[in-house]
Amino acid sequence: MLTGLELESMAIEMPAMGRHPNREGFRGVLTLVDVTSDRAPTGAQGHRVVLMRKAAEEALPSLLGMGLDYSLAFDRHDTRRKVGVITRAEIVGRCLELGGYLYAKDFPEIVEEISRSSLMAGAGSRTRPHTNLGMSYEITEVNVMDMRSSVWVLTHVVFTGAAILRKEKAAYQETWIEME
After folding, report:
1. Percent of the residues in the chain that have a pLDDT greater than 70, as a whole number
2. Alpha-carbon span 98 to 176, nearest angstrom
């Protein structure tokens, strides 16, 4: 029996149809909740941030159906380069985990890059795989507890998507993505 484990989950159920040539599953950790970022995310004006658990829980529904994007060098967000869709979001402990589908037929190079970058820690486990790719969230309608603080505490957000990034470019170094 696990103690101290909290779980908040939401999902969009996709129709079952066997293998679809343009739908390849992914999973990963988008961010950590109640933890200060390792570096300042884009848009935070040089401030590191903390996404409060309550804000993340309230914003979970806004993640569903949002796009997953990337840039060619995996070094920034590119909201006009959508390569997948988020269909599941849950908070497990301090991790905001995502799942969904990449458009595998349209972007085979992305599926290959994620597959190449990941060495699974164990099939179906929640442990962190060894990978050089992470993720980063995209948000709007942000409330910051104190804008003068060196670390911004985010008390309200609306998720507008996520990006695949090289870990060294992600605000949280413990994020990851892998193919299911």
Report:
1. 87
2. 10
Kindly state whether residue 29 falls inside one of the protein's structural domains.
yes
The answer to the question of residue 161 being in a domain is yes
Of the candidates 162, 156, 45, the residue with the CA atom closest to the CA atom of residue 96: 162
State the first-to-last Cα distance of the chain, in angstroms, to the nearest integer.
26
Tokens in use for 109? 């190079």
- Predicted TM-score (pTM) of the model is 0.87
Whether 8 maps to a domain, the answer reads no
HSE value, Cβ hemisphere, 13 Å, CA-based, for 100: 28
How many other C-beta atoms can be found within 10 angstroms of the C-beta atom of residue 112? 12
Q: Decide if pLDDT at 17 tops 80.
A: no
pLDDT digits (tens, 9 = 90+) for 55-71: 999 999 999 999 999 99
Tokens of 132: 């050089």
Counted domains in the chain:
1
Domain with 48, as residue range(s), is 24-121+129-179
d(CA 43, CA 32): 18
Question: Is 9 part of any domain?
Answer: no
